Description:
By secondary structure, the chain is of the alpha+beta class. The protein has two domains: 32-112; 116-269, Rod shape-determining protein MreC, domain 1 (Thrombin, subunit H, Beta Barrel). The chain contains three helices and twelve strands; from the N terminus they run αααββββββββββββ. The chain has helices at residues 2-25, 27-31, 33-112, and strands at 116-125, 133-136, 149-152, 155-163, 168-172, 179-184, 190-195, 200-204, 217-220, 232-240, 249-253, 263-269. The strands form two sheets. It has a six-stranded antiparallel beta barrel. The chain has a six-stranded antiparallel beta barrel with strand order 6-7-8-11-10-9. The chain is elongated. The N and C termini lie far apart (140 Å). The relative contact order is 0.11.
Amino acid sequence: MIxxxxxxxxxxxxxxxxxxxxFIFSPETQKKPLKLLSLPxxxxxxYLQVASNGLFDGIFEIxxxxxxxxxxxxxxxxxxxxxxxxTLENSRLREKEILTDRLKALLxxxxxxxxxxxxxxxxxRDPSQWFDTIILNKGSVDGIAVDMGVVTPMxxxxxxxxxxxxxxxxxxxxxxxxxxxxxxxxxxxEGIIQGVNTDSLQLKYLSHDSKVSVGDLLVTSGMEGSFIxxxxxxxxxxxxxxxxxxxxxxxxxxxxxxxxxxxxxxxxSIQDEQ
Length: 274
């Protein structure tokens, strides 16, 4: 069985070899050898060219896609930069608008006041824990003096405690060293507003039998000479009547958010009011 398979394999090989020899030495091959060979060779070249063209087309498409991707990436970066610039510009315009609104309110308040006021800008704050103060950009050359009252359209800010030629230091109403004459607007009871170095104040020396109640508005009494009458100080937030004590224990709010004050008015003259 093995012998027959080997014989058949050898016979097939011999047949192929003989066919090639006959093809090469045949008269037709001798007459037109190139023509006969051109078909298989041309076919091979054709498929090789098709394959190479497809390969180069694929590479070109990938390269074009990469270039397009880089262009899109660059365009996106440019758009992001433009958005950043527009956001910054919008923020600046918004800040200018807010500043304009604040200054307009300040000027309107000054124009309708019966006293002479000087506008000033907050340029610094005391970083220490001992005093609650701010620094203004107006000083003695602008007619500013110690004990002048400082306000905003919302109410009382504090008093000038130190003056230099080009700046002034203001003790805020929230400082425990601050003391301002106050009046309960509804009952007309008078006392002293003193700071406690918090967001609250205390109203002192109000009689135990006063009819003051939570929510009552507190205004300046105008007695100490730094403020005109009727400026907003805050409202009664809490009160306590203790037996045996002469005065009420009263806690009040602050009308002005002192941590956010940026522009103020300094009361330079109150002679007309007095």
